[in-house]
């Protein structure tokens, strides 16, 4: 007689998570629950597919430009559509807070940029996305060529100055105007750290209707309270102020200009009033102007003076310049980027 009873036939355990889930899904779960789970699985499968396609697109862009810093903006534009390029740029964002009140970041996949840690306007986009107004950036990249002369009026950190320098190359030049002493210092640091001192000339001067030895201007950003520029700002009144020399754009430098970006919406009337001579000697000039009807004393007069020289167009969200009227710019399109030129854009 055997000492032990023979073992029972082996039964596959159903205690595992996956077997129990499959049992519930295909056998015991109510039909409504099973349908809901199936729908969730289909949605997850679709999302995984889209993610795989996006990753493949990004890898294709990387294969095109290499895994180093993006070589040029022209290479970026050749690599694919906007979604792919934005994904590549975001993939390369980095931020480093610094003790002087600035934050170092990477813009457009290659430029090193110092920004103001207290800035709630442009800096968040540069820090988290790696670009600013991408639809305008793409437009600029299509419409600026090697060897040209460009102005960046109201440069702030120099984002557009760096973009323009990359596009005009060593054969061209960029003049960057930023009157705020703290921002001008950050601008100069950004020029130096990117090795573009041979292309970009930074000037601490304001564009105005006439020459002034010193004018007072409001300051949105002043740097740390104990920083080296603290004494450059006056805190009397509701908003900090600083003083700066001013010149009309026609007197900044002799010669013609090919491309100009004007980003001083609060002073657009004074800037436009001082650029007549420059317009006369630059028949092929293309201008991007940040326009805000709510910040002009007489927006209709400004637009009328511009329309007398150029067809009015604005840069739309698809990065294309489209015709517009004064009535539109005073109505539903009160804040926009205008393209002013006798030359049709690309």
Automatic annotation (TrEMBL):
Species: Neoroseomonas terrae
InterPro entries: SAM-dependent_MTases_sf
Name of the protein in question: FkbM family methyltransferase
SUPFAM superfamilies per UniProt: S-adenosyl-L-methionine-dependent methyltransferases
Taxonomic lineage: Bacteria, Pseudomonadati, Pseudomonadota, Alphaproteobacteria, Acetobacterales
């Amino acid at each position: 007689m055997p000492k032990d009873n023979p073992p029972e036939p082996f039964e596959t355990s159903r205690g595992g998570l996956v077997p129990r889930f499959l049992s519930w899904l295909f056998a015991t779960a109510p039909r409504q629950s099973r349908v809901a789970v199936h729908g969730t699985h289909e949605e997850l499968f679709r999302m995984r597919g889209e993610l795989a396609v996006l990753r493949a697109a990004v890898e294709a862009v990387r294969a095109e430009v290499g895994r180093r810093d993006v070589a040029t903006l022209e290479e970026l534009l050749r690599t694919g559509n906007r979604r792919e390029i934005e994904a590549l740029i975001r993939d390369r964002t980095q931020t480093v807070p610094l003790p002087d009140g600035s934050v170092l970041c990477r813009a457009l996949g290659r430029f090193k940029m110092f920004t103001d840690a207290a800035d709630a306007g442009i800096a968040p986009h540069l820090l988290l996305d790696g670009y600013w107004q991408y639809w305008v950036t793409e437009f600029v990249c299509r419409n600026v060529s090697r060897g040209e002369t460009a102005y960046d009026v109201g440069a702030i950190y120099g984002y557009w100055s760096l973009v323009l320098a990359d596009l005009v190359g060593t054969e061209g030049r960029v003049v960057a105007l930023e009157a705020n002493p703290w921002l001008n210092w950050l601008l100069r640091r950004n020029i130096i750290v990117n090795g573009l001192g041979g292309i970009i000339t930074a000037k601490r001067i304001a564009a105005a209707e006439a020459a002034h030895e010193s004018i007072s201007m409001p300051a949105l950003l002043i740097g740390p309270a104990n920083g080296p520029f603290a004494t450059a700002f006056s805190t009397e009144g509701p908003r900090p102020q600083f003083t700066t020399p001013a010149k009309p754009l026609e007197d900044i430098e002799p010669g013609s200009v090919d491309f100009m970006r004007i980003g001083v919406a609060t002073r657009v009337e004074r800037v436009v009033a001082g650029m007549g001579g420059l317009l006369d000697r630059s028949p092929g000039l293309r201008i991007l102007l940040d326009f805000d009807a709510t910040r002009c004393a007489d927006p209709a007069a400004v637009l009328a003076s511009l329309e007398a020289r150029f067809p009015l167009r604005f840069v739309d969200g698809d990065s294309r310049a489209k015709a517009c009227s004064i009535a539109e710019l005073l109505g539903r399109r009160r804040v926009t980027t205008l393209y002013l030129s006798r030359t049709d854009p690309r």
